TrEMBL record:
Name of this protein: MARVEL domain-containing protein
PANTHER family in UniProt: MAL, T CELL DIFFERENTIATION PROTEIN A (PTHR22776:SF94), MARVEL-CONTAINING POTENTIAL LIPID RAFT-ASSOCIATED PROTEIN (PTHR22776)
Recorded topology in the membrane: Multi-pass membrane protein
Principal localisation: membrane
Entry's Gene Ontology cellular component terms: membrane
Domain of life: Eukaryota
Keywords, comma-separated and alphabetical: Membrane, Transmembrane, Transmembrane helix
UniProt organism field: Monopterus albus (Swamp eel)
PROSITE patterns: MARVEL
Places the protein is found: Membrane
InterPro entries listed in its UniProt record: MAL (IPR013295), Marvel (IPR008253), MARVEL-CKLF_proteins (IPR050578)
Transmembrane segments: 32-54, 60-84, 96-113, 133-155
Keyword Protein transport: no
């Protein structure tokens, strides 16, 4: 009880009520964004994989980013859900850092995917082109979600 009411003792034990664990990650901001990040990132992964991956270099980067961020976000969500983030001050900083990197990666992948999609437009409105357009839209949505998560995580980290 004394550690919860005395600020210096609370910070020395690493108990910061700002980071959720368990089911609370589905009800707190910014952690509620994990599921939309997984959904939109997964859609980018699926849509790019369903089209002709030409040219390989930019599309390969898009695939790497979507798979990497999907797996890392899932692991990050599980860590928070299981309550494995004992040193909460460093976890708040790591949460902000990870989502910032993910936002930067997704922005670079989104721009690359948009450029490739525009270059591949043959004017016929093919199924592959429509899938690429959907992938571009979902990629920018994922970028926005990761960016918002970064800002909200930074606010949470700085307020702790």
């Amino acid at each position: 009880l004394a550690a919860a009411t005395h600020p210096t003792m609370a910070s020395s034990t690493g108990t910061n009520a700002n980071l959720p664990s368990g089911i609370e990650i589905c009800t707190t901001i910014p952690d509620i964004l994990y599921l939309p990040e997984l959904i939109f990132g997964g859609l980018v992964w699926i849509l790019v994989a369903a089209t002709l991956v030409v040219p390989a270099n930019p599309q390969g980067w898009v695939m790497f980013v979507s798979i990497f961020c999907f797996i890392m976000t899932f692991i990050w969500m599980v860590v928070f859900a299981c309550g494995a983030h004992n040193n909460r001050d460093s976890w708040a900083a790591a949460d902000c850092l990870y989502h910032g990197i993910a936002a930067f990666f997704y922005l670079s992948a989104s721009v690359s995917l948009a450029k490739v999609t525009l270059d591949l437009n043959d004017g016929t409105g093919s199924k592959s082109y429509k899938l690429d357009i959907a992938a571009v839209v979902f990629s920018y949505v994922a970028t926005l979600l990761y960016f918002i998560h970064t800002i909200l995580s930074a606010i949470r980290w700085k307020s702790s």
